[in-house]
Amino acid sequence: MRVRIGPYRKNRAEKIEIERFDTWSMDSTLALIIHPMLVQLKDTTHGAPCVDDLDVPEELRSTNAPPKENDYDADAYWFDRWDWVLDEMIWSFNEKNKDNWQEQYYGPYIEKEDDLGEFEWIDDVGRKAHQERMSNGFRLFGKYYENLWD
């Protein structure tokens, strides 16, 4: 894959070449691009969209924020909610970029005489929680896709 996108303007220069192998594992290919873009967005963002309370931990929800002075003001956790969502997306795409993230949940492989080896230990609960967190980050990416602006 080759991507060249010029500065944002009405007639910006764009050149995108997609190879057949880029779509073989398209989720991994896109993660390589999405992760650094999310990191940069978080570093340079100047605003925050409305984030649903159900998408963040209890302590960041608007219902737990101190009372606002005016109804039209953003609550005290408005920007914290967006930072949390961005952090979850960044974490998820970073984990996706690791080919071996699951290895931390498997103990050493033991070879057996019958050629049917096994792992000394497996942490399926930890692996499942890790995968669920990644999936939630991808869900948030989809939900807030149109809010990925600076």
Number of domains: 1
Sheet of most strands: 2 strands, antiparallel
Straight-line N-to-C gap: 26 Å
Estimate the helix proportion, in percent: 25-40%
Average pLDDT score: 94
Number of DSSP helices? Answer: 3
Query: What is the radius of gyration?
Result: 21 Å
Overall 3D shape: flat
Query: Order of SSEs, N→C?
Result: EEHHEEH
If strands are numbered along the chain, what order do they take across the biggest sheet?
1-2
Total beta-strand segments:
4
Catalogue the unreliable spans.
none
- Residue share in β-strands: 5-15%
Quaternary structure? single chain
Q: Give the helix/strand class.
A: mainly alpha
Structural key phrases:
two-stranded antiparallel sheet; 3 helices; about 10% strand; flat
Summarize the topology:
Elements lengths: L1 E4 L8 E4 L8 H19 L33 H19 L12 E2 L7 E2 L4 H20 L7
Antiparallel strand pairs: 1-2, 3-4
Written overview of the protein:
This protein has a two-stranded antiparallel ribbon. It has one domain. With 150 residues, it is mainly alpha-helical. A hairpin with an 8-residue loop joins strand 1 and strand 2 (14-17). The chain has helices at 26-44, 78-96, 124-143, and strands at 2-5, 14-17, 109-110, 118-119. It is built from three helices and four strands, in the order ββααββα. The two termini are 26 Å apart.
Produce a short descriptive summary.
The protein contains three helices and four strands. It is mostly helical.
